[in-house]
Amino acid sequence: MSVGENIRRYRKSRGMTQAQLAEAVGLTEGAVRHYESGIRTVKPELLESIADTLGVSVNALKDYGVETAGDLMSLLVRLEDSFGIAPASDGSGLTLNPNAPHAPKAAMAIELWAEKRAQLEDGEIGAREYEDWKASL
């Protein structure tokens, strides 16, 4: 998703109008509309302010350019050396090579993700709480 689409998604999930977001970050409603539609590009410092107002991390608003399976594969193979991400031998998932430089931290983050998913699936947390957790990363 584009930055503008992400801003729109989180703004709506927070029950905010474009006018309310604009007022909160010191913009015009037209500027917010232009950012959301992709007519204008959000500068990094403004993106931080928007993220703070929406209660999400800047990373939740960024566009990582992963739109297709090919894009995903390109990203995963680039992460192999530093994070040790590799396909499982049966092709059913991914594994981490523990000897890769950033694998230990990646493993801890993935373990936390698995715990949150289990909480969602067990009904301990709702979909909104799970989405909010993902947006905080």
Automatic annotation (TrEMBL):
Coiled-coil annotated residue ranges, if any: none
InterPro entries hit by this protein: Cro/C1-type_HTH, Lambda_DNA-bd_dom_sf
CDD domains in the cross-refs: HTH_XRE
Gene Ontology molecular functions: DNA binding
All residue ranges annotated as the HTH cro/C1-type domain in the record: 7-61
Keywords (A to Z) from UniProt: DNA-binding
SMART domains to which the protein is assigned, alphabetical: HTH_XRE (SM00530)
Name assigned to this protein: Predicted transcriptional regulators
Organism name: Gordonibacter pamelaeae 7-10-1-b
